[in-house]
Design brief:
- By secondary structure, the chain is an alpha+beta fold.
- Helices cover 45% and strands 14% of the residues.
- Strands 1, 2, 3, 4, 5, 6, 7, 8, 9, 10, 11 and 12 form a 12-stranded mixed beta sheet that branches.
- A hairpin with a 2-residue loop joins strand 2 and strand 3.
- Helix 1 packs across helix 10 and helix 3 runs parallel beside helix 8.
- The chain starts with 18 loop residues before the first helix and ends in a 32-residue tail after the last helix.
- The N terminus and C terminus are likely disordered.
C-alpha cells in the first residue's frame, strides 16, 4: 500500500532558516566514519596522557636525562597539566564522535597544550607528534564537526560531580600508591585515602615523602584532579539552560487544528499533544512531527500529524534538525503507510515492531464460541456487584475528575508515569473533553464503612481518534479488586461507545505479536520457536505475551506498527532511549530530589481551541 505523496510548495510559509544550508553541509561531509575515528584517537591520547602522568615508569625516555636542566617546579606543573589535559580529552571524546562543534574547539586547544607539556617534561616526541597529527586532521576536516549541543539539564552537573569525583579519588589513590618507595613510614590505606581527599581540595595530607619534588608532584596531581572535577561541574551547572521539551500553547493549538482535519488517519495522532514533547512543522504548516530527545536519540512516535502530501516537508525538517545536532533519528510505532514515506523520503530502514489491536464496535458481540471465556468472565464479575459507567470526560464534574485522577495515581504502582508513544500523561485537562472514560464501581457491602469515591475500582481512558474512533490511553484498577475487571471495562466500552458515534476502538499495542502467533503454530521452525521462547521469557518483566493474549480475547483486527531507524548499529541505542522514554528505565535525579508524578489534573493551556471554529 502506497500513499499519494508529493512535494509540497513553500508559498504558504517561508522556508525554515538554515534548512538549505544544512542540506548543503550534509552533502559536503564525505567521510561519515571520520568523527568516530577522531573520537577514539582522542580517547586513546587522553588515556596515554593520564597513564604518563600517573605512572613514573612511563616517563622514562632516552633523553629523559636532560629534564634535570629544567626547574623542578616546571616539570611538576607539567605533569599535573598533562593529567588535566588527559582527563578532559577523555571526557570530550564521546562528544567528538557525535560531531559536536564545542568539543572540536576544546580539543583543538587541548591537543597542542598536551603536546607542549610532553615536550617540556619528558621530551616524548612521539606522543607530541601524534597529538599534533590528530590536530592537523581535525583542522583539515573541521566541517565534519558541526553539531550543536544537546538540550541541557542541571542534573548533568550533579552526575558529572559524582562520577568524576569517584574517578578522581581512584586515580588519586593510584598516584599516591605508585610512589610507595618514596614514602616516609608505612601509611595505611585509610591514610592514603585521607591524603587523596586533602589533595583534591589543595591541602597537604598526612603522608610525607623523602623528596620535595615527589611531594610536590603528588600534591599538584591531586590538585589537578580536583580542579578538573570542580571546573567541569561548575561549567555544567552555570551554563545557560535550554528549556525542556515542551508543547507550547501556540503549537498545541496548531496541532489540534491538524487533528481536527486529519486526525482520523492515525490512532496515535492525539498523543502528539503530550506536553513533554516538542513539535516540528512542515514549511507549509500542513503537517507536524512531535518528538523528544532521549540520550542523543531524536525519538518520534506514530505518523506525522496532518496532510499526507505535506509529510515529506515535515520529515525533511525533522531529519535536518537531527543532522544539525547529530542526533540519531528514530520513529516508534508508525503505520505501514508512515513507514513507507519515512523510508522513501529520508532513506531510513523499517522494522516491524508489533501490532495494534482494533475492534469494530458495529460487529463486536459476546456471542459465539470464540467469546465464551470473555462472556463467562464478564457475567461472573457482574454477579460480584460491579457496574460500569461510560462517559465523555467533558461530562464529568470537577470532583469526579479529581477522584478518578487520584485513584489512577494510587493504582499506578511506580513513582514515574509510564508511557510515551501511546500515552497522554494526563487526565481531565482542559481541551481533552472529547476523551472517553470508563469507570468500574462496586457498592460497599452492608456494614462496611466507605468514604466518597471508595466505590471506584478501575478506570479506562480513551483519547479521540478522529470523529468516529477512540484509542486506549490508560488502564488502571485497584489491585485488591476481583480479576476480570479489565475485561468488564472493555466490553462495557465496546457496547456503549457506539451510541456516541464511535465505530473504531484501538486497544493495547502487542509487541512482536506476529512472532508470538507464528511461533506457537504447528510447523514453526527452530529459529522462530527460539525467538518466541525468548519473548515469553522477557514477558516476565515487560508483559509482551500477556498483552497479546489479552487483546486477542476481543477478536480484533491487527494493524502492524513499525520502528524506523537510520543505521542498524543505532538499534541498541534507540532501544535504550525508547525504554527511557517509556519510563521502563529511569535515569537522572535521585529519588529524594524527584517530584512525585501523578496522573491527575493539569493546568489549562494558555491557548484553547475554539470548538465552534
Amino acid at each position: 500500500m502506497s500513499a499519494p505523496v508529493s512535494a509540497e510548495t513553500t508559498t504558504d510559509a517561508p522556508r525554515p532558516r538554515g534548512l538549505q544550508a544544512l542540506r548543503d553541509q550534509a552533502a559536503a561531509v564525505p567521510r561519515p566514519w571520520l568523527p568516530g575515528a577522531v573520537g577514539y584517537a582522542c580517547l586513546a591520547i587522553g588515556l596515554i596522557d593520564i597513564a604518563c602522568a600517573v605512572s613514573p615508569r612511563l616517563r622514562l625516555t632516552r633523553v629523559h636525562t636532560v629534564v634535570g636542566q629544567l626547574p623542578g617546579g616546571t616539570t611538576t606543573l607539567a605533569a599535573a597539566g598533562t593529567l588535566m589535559v588527559g582527563m578532559l580529552l577523555v571526557l570530550l571524546a564521546h562528544a567528538l564522535r557525535r560531531r559536536k562543534a564545542r568539543a572540536w574547539r576544546a580539543v583543538c586547544v587541548l591537543l597542542p597544550v598536551g603536546a607542549a607539556l610532553h615536550l617540556m617534561r619528558w621530551h616524548q616526541f612521539g606522543q607530541a607528534a601524534i597529538s599534533l597529527a590528530l590536530l592537523a586532521v581535525m583542522l583539515v576536516h573541521r566541517r565534519e564537526f558541526y553539531a550543536k549541543a544537546d538540550p541541557r539539564t542541571r542534573w548533568r552537573a550533579v552526575l558529572n560531580f559524582v562520577v568524576l569525583g569517584v574517578v578522581s579519588v581512584l586515580l588519586g589513590l593510584v598516584v599516591v600508591s605508585v610512589r610507595w618507595k618514596a614514602e616516609l613510614g608505612d601509611p595505611t590505606l585509610f591514610q592514603r585515602l585521607e591524603h587523596v581527599g586533602y589533595g583534591l581540595f589543595g591541602f597537604e595530607g598526612p603522608i610525607d615523602y623523602t623528596s620535595d619534588r615527589i611531594g610536590d608532584l603528588v600534591g599538584y596531581s591531586l590538585g589537578a584532579l580536583g580542579l578538573v572535577t570542580a571546573l567541569t561541574t561548575a561549567y555544567l551547572a552555570l551554563r545557560p539552560e535550554k528549556p525542556e521539551p515542551e508543547l507550547t500553547p501556540e503549537d498545541e493549538l496548531r496541532v489540534r487544528e491538524l487533528l481536527a482535519r486529519h486526525g482520523r488517519r492515525d490512532s496515535l495522532g492525539y498523543f502528539a499533544l503530550r506536553r513533554d514533547k516538542s513539535v516540528l512543522f512542515s514549511p507549509t504548516g500542513k503537517a507536524a512531527i512531535s518528538y523528544r530527545v532521549v540520550s542523543g536519540v531524536m525519538l518520534a512516535s506514530g505518523d506525522p500529524v496532518g496532510d499526507v502530501e505535506a509529510w515529506p516537508g515535515a520529515i525533511k525538517v525533522f531529519m535536518a534538525t537531527a543532522r544539525e545536532h547529530a542526533w540519531a533519528p528514530a520513529v516508534m510505532g508508525c503505520s505501514e503507510v508512515g513507514g513507507e514515506v519515512w523510508t522513501r523520503e529520508a532513506g531510513l530502514d523499517a522494522l516491524e515492531l508489533g501490532d495494534e489491536a482494533i475492534v469494530d464496535t458495529a460487529t463486536f458481540s459476546l456471542s459465539g464460541r470464540a467469546m465464551r471465556n470473555v462472556r463467562q468472565m464478564v457475567k461472573r464479575i457482574e454477579r460480584n456487584g460491579y457496574s460500569c459507567q461510560v462517559r465523555r470526560v467533558g461530562d464529568l464534574t470537577l470532583d469526579e475528575k479529581r477522584r478518578i485522577g487520584d485513584a489512577a495515581a494510587r493504582w499506578r504502582g511506580t513513582d514515574t508515569e509510564r508511557g510515551f508513544s501511546m500515552a497522554l500523561g494526563r487526565f481531565g485537562d482542559a481541551g481533552d473533553d472529547d476523551c472517553v472514560v470508563v469507570t468500574a464501581h462496586r457498592a460497599p457491602e452492608e456494614g462496611e464503612a466507605a468514604g466518597p469515591g471508595d466505590d471506584l475500582k478501575a478506570v479506562l481512558h480513551f483519547v479521540p481518534w478522529g470523529e468516529d474512533g477512540i484509542s486506549l490511553e490508560l488502564m488502571r484498577r485497584d489491585r485488591e479488586a476481583d480479576p476480570g475487571l479489565n475485561e468488564l471495562l472493555i466490553v462495557a466500552a465496546l457496547q456503549a461507545v457506539g451510541a456516541m458515534g464511535v465505530r473504531r476502538v484501538s486497544l493495547n499495542f502487542a509487541m512482536f505479536r506476529s512472532a508470538l502467533a507464528r511461533g506457537e503454530r504447528i510447523g514453526a521452525g527452530p529459529v522462530l520457536r527460539a525467538w518466541r521462547g525468548l519473548l515469553v521469557f522477557l514477558s516476565r518483566w515487560f508483559q509482551i505475551e500477556s498483552l497479546y493474549k489479552f487483546n486477542a480475547k476481543f477478536q480484533p483486527s491487527w494493524e502492524p506498527r513499525f520502528l524506523v531507524y537510520q543505521h542498524t548499529r543505532d538499534l541498541p541505542r534507540i532501544g535504550f532511549a525508547a525504554m527511557q522514554a517509556e519510563a521502563f528505565i529511569t535515569l537522572g535525579m535521585p529519588r529524594f530530589g524527584r517530584k512525585r508524578q501523578r496522573q491527575g489534573l493539569m493546568q489549562e493551556p494558555a491557548v484553547q481551541l475554539d470548538k465552534a471554529a
